[in-house]
Amino acid sequence: LRLIRKLEDGGAWSLFLLRLNPLTSFDAISYFAGGLGMKFSRFIFATIAGLTPLITFGTIAGKEALERYQIGFQLIVSLTLLYIFNSIYKAVKRNRFRKKLKLENRTRSI
Fold this sequence. Notes:
Layout: H1 2-8, H2 12-20, H3 26-35, H4 40-68, H5 70-109
Helix pairs in contact: 2-4
């Protein structure tokens, strides 16, 4: 309730602090800010200011991880692609099987 009161008062500072926390639901914060009538300019400024440190840290950490663990990254990409192709293969195979069953059922009923 205190957060809602702060956002109602045009709490760009509260929005900024909430955006700094990576565990906070960004959608919920945006809905509250919009529903409580926060000015768009304040909302945008607080959002950009709050997300910039998190994005900067993520970018630097990601760059360091890629440089340091290149084989691990390649393994993750390879496993992800394998999973995607396997899922597509199973879906196509399942679809063909269903079509075959429908054709068999139609010929039996005739």
